[in-house]
Specification:
It is a single chain. α3 links the parallel β9 and β10. This protein is an alpha/beta fold. It contains three helices and 13 strands. A nine-stranded mixed beta sheet has the order 1-13-11-5-7-9-10-4-12, with no helix packed on it. Strands 2-3 form a two-stranded antiparallel ribbon. Helices cover 10% and strands 26% of the residues.
Length: 212
């Protein structure tokens, strides 16, 4: 019998966020006592918590969320389990090569580093395992459609890495800040739709895996 695994971190008022990003605020606006119903006001980055990046995030002429086909966010996926890596471990091509069968044209690939254990701490955004630019080029050359991870961003060289993965000729949707990857089998169905934000660069998502 199929079951669902939640791959998303909860969004909570005041939780840590990526440096330079606006803080997340989730505050009551109406209550049952004041108006008869509960309603909250939300203010946050389009890249808060578990989220995805569209090419427009780094390229003014890149595709925006609403220009990407829905199929990019849904379908069969493969897990590349790298184990539980130490802080700032470089993620190299040699570490990815044992999983080369997963990196097929059009594939959705999620890699696990164990870094979700640091979610909620400031170190989550500074000391994460670090995809090398060589490894990013190796991934881009495989022409996959989606790359997910349990780190807040692929690389400490975030500008160069995003340019490689999101740039023309690659345009890989990047899903960052995933959770519970240790529960995944090698193959599963990935579901991670963004909000339909017109003309925008990214969105928090409720990422889910459907497994047999």
């Amino acid at each position: 019998m199929a079951r669902l695994i939640d791959l998303s971190h909860p969004l909570a008022d005041g939780q840590p966020n990526f440096p330079l990003d606006p803080p997340i605020r989730v505050t009551p606006f109406h209550t049952t006592a004041s108006t008869g119903y509960n309603l909250a006001e939300i203010s946050m980055s389009t890249h808060q918590g578990t989220h995805l990046d569209a090419p427009y995030h780094f390229f003014d002429d890149g595709k925006t969320l609403d220009e990407l086909p829905l199929e990019r966010f849904y379908g069969p996926a493969r897990l590349a389990d790298l184990g539980c890596l130490e802080a700032r471990t470089p993620i190299t091509v040699d570490m990815l090569r044992p999983h080369h069968d997963a990196f097929q044209p059009g594939a959705r690939v999620i890699y696990r580093t164990g870094w979700q254990r640091m979610f909620g701490r400031r170190e989550f955004f500074s000391d994460y395992p670090d995809l090398t630019l060589e490894a990013a080029r190796w991934i881009a050359g495989r022409q996959i459609s989606l790359l997910g991870m349990d780190t807040p961003t692929p690389s400490s060289q975030w500008l160069e890495c995003h340019h490689i993965l999101l740039g023309k000729g690659a345009e890989i949707v990047i899903v960052e800040g995933l959770a519970n990857l240790e529960q995944l089998p090698a193959e599963f169905l990935f579901i991670g739709f963004p909000l339909n934000l017109a003309g925008r660069d990214g969105s928090p998502i409720r990422a889910v895996a459907l497994v047999d």
